[in-house]
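User: Okay, second chain of the day. Same drill as before: sequence in, structure tokens out.
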Amino acid sequence: MSFERIRRRITFPPDSVKEVQKLVEKQKIQDPKIFSKFVGLHKGESFVVCGCGNSLKNYESFDSHIAIGVNDASSRIPCKYLVVVNEPRNFARGRWENVENTDAEYVFTHIPTLPIPNSERRVIINLGKYEGVNLDNYGFIDYTTNSPYMAIIIAYQMGARKIAIVGVDFTLHHFFGETGKHKINREIDKVLNQYSVLGRALTDKGISIANLSQESMIESWPKMTLEEFETI
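Assistant: Same drill. Structure tokens below.
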């Protein structure tokens, strides 16, 4: 299920936060406020947000940066954190197993019942505003239909000084196979504008941004090599 479909199933803010909190209470799963312990945890550090696009194949690791992957990106790149917004049944065959077996230290999700082994690694996030850029609403993560958007805001709230994206391409195929055209391409202009607005909001806060994918359709984030990113 796409995140857009998830969004349609729940009345989004403010009701979405209440729904998540009710589910947490019902299932007796960890307090969603646990995300607060991550706020500012990596103040002044450098982050790389890893999508699942084809360009992720161009890298092996981001050792001197904090990597936040989405979905099963950690099966390609070692990631300290993962962001997962889909139920297991919505992953193509074999992909959920990659999420389930991730070596990431923590998995951020708005789904209280997401079946991650060792539930202490599951961190419930509160959803903020659709297409929002309220970066300083700590503990609430604005979102779109594309999960790297959320990972970027999580990086900011954890204290990032600079943020690069990779694998956020919207071109043919994913890093794990020849999957063809990205399904989000039917609303690509809207998506590109969302990343443009988010990029401006970050730079207005003094955050350096970069796109490590030369093939990415996102032109509003300056394209550069990893070596160049490390010097800014």
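The chain is about 25% helix and 15% strand.

User: Thanks, on to the next one.
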